[in-house]
């Protein structure tokens, strides 16, 4: 890819970018609400959350995506690392108990607390990574954009689950002590 085409190879797919924008807006609104009530949200939290949003936008809209799809396998793998590991790390690091409180009150989310156990989180992450590299699944992701989107969603979800026990963003069940 020549340098001038790097500037024109940005893609803006609403199906990929709209959910990212909605998450960013919801986060910003929640932080503003908390600060308006006098609840402290450390300044670094929104900054690191914003970095996670920027990483996702770069992974999906920047030349990294275009080069990874058409030219360099290494760029495609870079996209997977950003989507499945780095962006979830930043997004979860930007969260706090008060920010999450409305979500944690939902019964389905309460049931997901079990995933904060590293004995579950790491195998879920590894299984997602390895399953998508089984030849027939890998080929399906290469040939069908909807399967490729599902692959990215599973990488992101598994990455977020993997970081839960490390960052202790989502409180682990009481039976699981972290030291």
* Number of helices, where a helix is a run of at least 4 consecutive DSSP H or I residues: 10
**Euclidean distance between termini CA atoms:** 50 Å
Stretches where pLDDT falls below 50 for ≥5 residues?
Answer: none
Order of helices and strands: HHHHHHHHHH
Principal-axis shape equals: globular
Q: Give the overall average pLDDT.
A: 89
Cα Rg: 18 Å
Quickly give the structural class.
mainly alpha
Number of strands: 0
Give the helices and strands, then pairings.
Layout: H1 3-8, H2 14-36, H3 44-61, H4 63-70, H5 73-93, H6 97-104, H7 107-111, H8 118-131, H9 135-143, H10 145-167
Helix pairs in contact: 2-3, 3-4, 3-5, 4-5, 5-10, 8-10, 9-10
Question: Which key features would you list for this structure?
Answer:
single chain, about 180 residues, mainly alpha, 10 helices, globular
């Amino acid at each position: 890819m020549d340098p001038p085409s790097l500037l024109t190879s940005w893609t803006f797919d609403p199906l990929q970018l709209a959910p990212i924008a909605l998450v960013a807006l919801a986060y910003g609104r929640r932080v503003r609400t908390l600060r308006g009530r006098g609840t402290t949200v450390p300044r670094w939290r929104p900054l690191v959350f914003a970095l996670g949003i920027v990483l996702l936008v770069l992974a999906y809209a920047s030349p990294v995506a275009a080069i990874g799809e058409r030219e360099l396998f290494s760029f495609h793998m870079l996209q997977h690392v950003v989507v499945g590991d780095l962006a979830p790390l930043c997004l979860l690091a930007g969260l706090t108990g008060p920010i999450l409180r409305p979500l944690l009150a939902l019964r389905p989310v309460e049931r997901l607390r079990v995933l904060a156990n590293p004995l579950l989180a790491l195998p879920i992450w590894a299984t997602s990574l390895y399953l998508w590299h089984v030849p027939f699944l890998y080929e399906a992701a290469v040939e069908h954009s909807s399967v490729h989107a599902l692959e990215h969603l599973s990488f992101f979800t598994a990455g977020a689950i993997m970081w839960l026990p490390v960052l202790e963003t989502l409180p682990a069940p009481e039976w699981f002590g972290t030291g």
